[in-house]
């Protein structure tokens, strides 16, 4: 794992200019900082004319299938081969559980996660015999209730949302195992010692998609308080508010690991690689409009700063770029143009070349989402290992359903 981490760091450092900022934020300077294979790729896409979004969505769908993509240039092929090799992580294989009809209201993603995670926990319980758990961020207690039902195990379901907890508590109260779960209204912050009263000598600390900083707090609690067992899946890296919670391992410090901008953390939270063509086409249209608007803003005001536009009403988005532009120019208090002026700007050859380069660069940049996520998660893996714990990193969920599928299992040496 040390060699893998070192190679990932080297890869990220070599391509730093491609992933650390949004192309729209620094175009055209962004293009000029790239090596020739990437700028050539973007410029080739900028020459597409007919059915641009249709053509591009198909091309990018192929691009995101990293395992099989064949670039027209040897340099890009070498980039893809290296990227593919760095992203290989063992897959934990389990036989998914089928939930009964009482869980039909659970969304597909959550259902898949529970059906896949529960058999893994059952395997670990058979090996180590833990008989108590703390489910941090347990929400309505779906996972906690199923653990009580299927594993004959008791525990606490912790969450900050009292309303959701109350709803889940009422549902579980109608089941034979409702009394096995203790719902606790709980907000975890940097004071990780607040978890101590819930930890017993044979506890599994569980965090299924602990958001932002919370995954790191759980990992630090496991290491510092010698929690017997930990199972954690991180998510929402873009919500990490504390830079000191990145590169927390000594290994990362020894490697002088890259720091991640807010843009990069947002990128790590994306899941473009598994997008279907229809979904990708919509995302490309959103980005096409946003890039066009940025160029229009610069044209009208000379201001190249990125402004938060907020939500666009569906009917305005579907009406076309002219309506989209007029709506957001008004919101941003920029003197509006006529439909015809906006249409002329949009159709100008130089505008089309620029916006297509931005979209192509954004697609290339999206390929770094998984490798940035891996750098973050492997750092957490090392932190636990350095604290003397037996630690495992693996993939579990189907990435087409639940893209944040990197799990960490960690056991203290004192635990059986």
Helix content: 40-55%
Q: Count of helical segments? A: 19
Rg on CA atoms, Å = 24 Å
Give the biggest beta sheet.
Answer: 7 strands, mixed
Low-confidence stretches: none
Category by helix and strand content: alpha/beta
Based on Cα principal axes, name the global outline: globular
Main sheet: strand order: 3-2-1-4-5-7-6
Question: Can I get a quick summary?
Answer:
The chain is α/β, with parallel strands linked by helices and 416 residues long. It has helices spanning 2-14, 16-19, 23-26, 29-32, 36-46, 52-64, 74-86, 108-128, 142-151, 162-172, 214-224, 250-254, 262-268, 277-301, 314-319, 321-331, 339-347, 349-366, 369-386; strands spanning 132-136, 154-159, 181-185, 203-211, 229-235, 390-395, 406-411. It has a 7-stranded mixed β-sheet, sandwiched between helices.
């Amino acid at each position: 794992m040390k060699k893998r981490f070192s190679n990932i760091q080297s890869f990220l450092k070599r391509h730093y200019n491609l992933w650390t900022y949004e192309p729209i934020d620094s175009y055209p300077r962004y293009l000029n900082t790239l090596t020739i294979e990437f700028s050539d790729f973007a410029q080739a896409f900028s020459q597409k004319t007919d059915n641009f979004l249709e053509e591009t969505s198909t091309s990018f769908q192929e691009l995101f299938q990293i395992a099989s993509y064949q670039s027209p240039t040897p340099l890009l092929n070498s980039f893809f081969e290296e990227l593919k090799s760095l992203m290989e992580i063992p897959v934990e294989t389990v036989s998914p559980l089928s939930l009964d009809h009482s869980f039909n209201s659970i969304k597909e993603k959550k259902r898949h996660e529970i059906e896949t995670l529960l058999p893994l926990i059952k395997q670990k319980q058979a090996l180590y015999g833990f008989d108590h758990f703390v489910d941090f961020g347990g929400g309505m207690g779906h996972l906690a209730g199923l653990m009580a039902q299927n594993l004959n195990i008791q525990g606490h379901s912790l969450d900050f949302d009292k309303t959701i907890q109350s709803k889940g508590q009422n549902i579980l109260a109608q089941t034979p195992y409702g009394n096995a779960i203790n719902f606790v209204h709980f907000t975890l912050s940097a004071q990780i010692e607040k978890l101590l009263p819930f930890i017993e000598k044979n506890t599994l600390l569980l965090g299924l998609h602990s958001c932002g900083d919370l995954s790191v707090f759980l990992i630090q609690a496991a290491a510092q308080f010698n929690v017997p067992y930990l199972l954690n899946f991180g998510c929402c890296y873009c919500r990490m508010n504390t830079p000191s919670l990145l590169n927390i391992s000594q290994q990362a410090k020894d490697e002088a690991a890259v720091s991640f901008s807010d843009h990069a953390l947002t990128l790590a939270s994306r899941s473009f690689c598994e997008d279907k063509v229809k979904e990708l086409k919509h995302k490309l249209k959103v980005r096409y409009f946003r890039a066009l608007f940025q160029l229009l803003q610069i044209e009208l005001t000379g201001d190249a700063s990125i402004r938060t536009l907020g939500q666009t009403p569906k009917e305005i988005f579907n009406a076309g770029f002219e309506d989209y532009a007029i709506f957001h120019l008004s919101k941003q208090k920029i003197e509006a143009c006529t439909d015809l002026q906006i249409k002329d700007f949009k159709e100008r050859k130089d505008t089309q070349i620029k916006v297509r380069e931005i979209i192509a660069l954004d697609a290339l940049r999206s390929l770094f989402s998984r490798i940035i996520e891996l750098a973050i998660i492997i750092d957490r893996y090392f932190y636990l290992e350095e604290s003397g714990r037996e630690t495992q990193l693996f993939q579990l969920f189907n990435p087409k359903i639940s893209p944040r599928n990197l799990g960490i299992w960690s056991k203290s040496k004192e635990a059986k």
